[in-house]
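Exercise: predict the fold of this chain.
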Amino acid sequence: MTDVVIAWVDGDDPAHKCKKAKYLTGKDETRFDDIAGAMRYRSTGEVYYCVASVLRYAPWVRKIFIVTDNQDPHIDEFVTRNFPDNTIPIEIVDHTVLFRGYERHLPTFNSISIETMLWRIPGLSDRFLYFNDDFFLAAPTTEDMWFKEDNTHIYALRFATWWGRLLRWGKHLGRKHKEFGYKDSMLNAADIMKARCFHLFPHAPQPMRRTWYEKFYAENPIWIEYNIRHRFREPSQYSIPTLFYIGAHREGKLEVRSPKGSTCFFKPSAKKATDYMARKIAEADANKDLKFGCINSLGETTEEAQQMFHAWISKRLGVTL
């Protein structure tokens, strides 16, 4: 049995904005999207496509959990209208449930802190796929794409830690703001595990094992507090999937597959608008091996480009918002 866990936030919710404002330190965190910029929290309907893609292309999933901070995506009407015969239950899980015993670290506005606690969802299957709300499946899938018996399968490339450190040094050279990126958290996890390599995976569903995290944190409780103490993203934090993948690799229970051709990554902006969106959609449609994708920062581009994406993904999934 495999579950899906989706982390979601509506950053335009006035209550959420007010709550977040109380914890901003005055260091202008909101200037930077890698810390607490508005784009990190904006929602433009991506969660509906995320859920729809699971219902459409992964009917073998046992249950979908949507993790929120006292919010509700109101997904029921959408599912009933588009999937009247759906049998996969959908449950909303509040941050207070994940952080039970660690309530002093709430509220949190930090996706890495939230990811650290996902394995604590009550009733979660041992095998689960973690989705950001802007991830989506793009074609029919099978469970053994990610799990088979005791093995976990990931789509990734092996990446040397020395090369990661060199790239980070070059990225930070001469810059006042030391941007905290995707690979940086992976490198931090590799350092914790004293590994020479880590797995560089795309913005795509990440398979995880609840029992692995239970055992790891029972033996290393310091690393929970280390990662969840920051209300906003912080450069010392480590990647939760990377931690597990290094551990599973050492146990001989990880199969690494090339991500080449399996995913599409949209990162539009106001400058990269309709021409960019049209080109990326054409590339996705031409890719016969496409399995999943990510629409990053959709709210940052023009209304016309947004509508192009909405029309494309709605047609691909056979749904209407």
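Check your answer against the key: The mean pLDDT is 92.
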